[in-house]
Amino acid sequence: MTRAQQTISLALLVTSLYLSLYLGLIPLPAVVQDEIIPVLPFWSLVTFGAWLLFRLGWGMLTFKDTPEAYAELMEEIKLAKADLRVRGVDVD
User: Which positions, given as ranges, span the membrane (predicted)?
Assistant: First the structure.
């Protein structure tokens, strides 16, 4: 099974579970049915976004610099500045 098929299968499973909860096919207490289930998709989107922001921040925080990468980046910056100066752009 390909990755796309797995993703589609999981999405269909989650959607069918949510619809069965939303339509009341699975009995739940009235408070849960009326107040929690309708906002569950929005809550999951916000949670997913917060998780992605955390992962991005953690990746930036734990990014391991290497001296070779730093030297390569500085060389590319020098080349870009030289190219811009040739074209008449003030970069300093």
Answer: 7-30, 36-54
